[in-house]
Amino acid sequence: MHAKLAVADRRVLLVSSANLTQSGVTANIEAGLLVRGGSAPARAAEHVAALCSSGTLTRLEW
């Protein structure tokens, strides 16, 4: 399984198997975890920032 994640304001974290599209969220049967508060949202944001800084993650240009 692979997961998608979204972090809002370093305070809310969504980790889900759903594609973050309208049909992916409404039409498919998926699992997800919503975390509000604690250290997990900030740590996830820091991890993604570190992956970007190292060049492991890069922005896709269309």
From TrEMBL:
<protein>
    <submittedName>
        <fullName>Phospholipase D-like domain-containing protein</fullName>
    </submittedName>
</protein>
<dbReference type="Pfam" id="PF13091">
    <property type="entry name" value="PLDc_2"/>
</dbReference>
<dbReference type="InterPro" id="IPR001736">
    <property type="entry name" value="PLipase_D/transphosphatidylase"/>
</dbReference>
<dbReference type="InterPro" id="IPR025202">
    <property type="entry name" value="PLD-like_dom"/>
</dbReference>
<feature type="domain" description="PLD phosphodiesterase">
    <location>
        <begin position="1"/>
        <end position="24"/>
    </location>
</feature>
